[in-house]
Amino acid sequence: MIALKLTQIGNSVGVLLPKEALAKLGAEKGDTLYLTDGAFGDMRISAYDPRVAEEIALGEEFMDDYRDAFRVLAK
Question: Strands 33-37, 43-47: parallel, antiparallel or unpaired by DSSP?
Answer without folding.
Answer: antiparallel
